Amino acid sequence: MQEPEFAQTQPKEATMPDINNQTGTITKLQPPAQSQEEWGKYVEQVSQFLATLPDYVGNFFNQYKQPLVIVGLIVGSLVTVRVLLAVLDALNDIPLVAPTFELIGIGYSAWFVYRYLLKASTRQELNNEITTLKSQVVGQDGSEN
């Protein structure tokens, strides 16, 4: 097996320029002027981009306002549902809270049936309240239905 041949290279010390001839003094290296100019170009490009960024964002928001609002509402509603489910799950873990809520729900349902659904006159009253509420929310006259 042959050993690979290596080319003779000069030691690193020989390739380094002689910067400081006096012992005990520190000489600061100056970066090349070309890199400062390149750095200045990059800084100028970034500053121009940042200066026009509010215009870009404003135009983007104006152009896509409705889809952005819809996406925001969907994300907000998903977060709200997740938080609500987490709170309900935490409440279910507390002893006697879940049965208490069930009793409250059964009691309210019984009261609602007794108050609004047993007689025709109270059912009409409930229908009028629902129609009034619907007209307030939608903004239409309730008599159109």
H-E string: HHHHH
Helical residues, percent: over 70%
What characteristic shape results from the CA principal axes?
Answer: elongated
Mean pLDDT score, rounded?
A: 83
SS-based structural class? mainly alpha
The major beta sheet can be summarized as: none
Range of strand content? under 5%
By DSSP, the count of extended strands is 0
Query: How many DSSP helices?
Result: 5
Low-confidence residue ranges: none
Spatial gap, N to C terminus: 99 Å
Global Rg: 39 Å
Chart the SSEs and their pairings.
Elements: H1 12-15, H2 33-63, H3 65-92, H4 97-117, H5 120-138
Describe this entry's structure for a reader.
Helix content is 71%, strand content 0%. The mean pLDDT is 83. The chain is elongated and about 110 Å long. It has helices spanning 12-15, 33-63, 65-92, 97-117, 120-138. It starts with 11 loop residues before the first helix and ends in a 7-residue tail after the last helix. The chain is mainly α and 145 residues long.
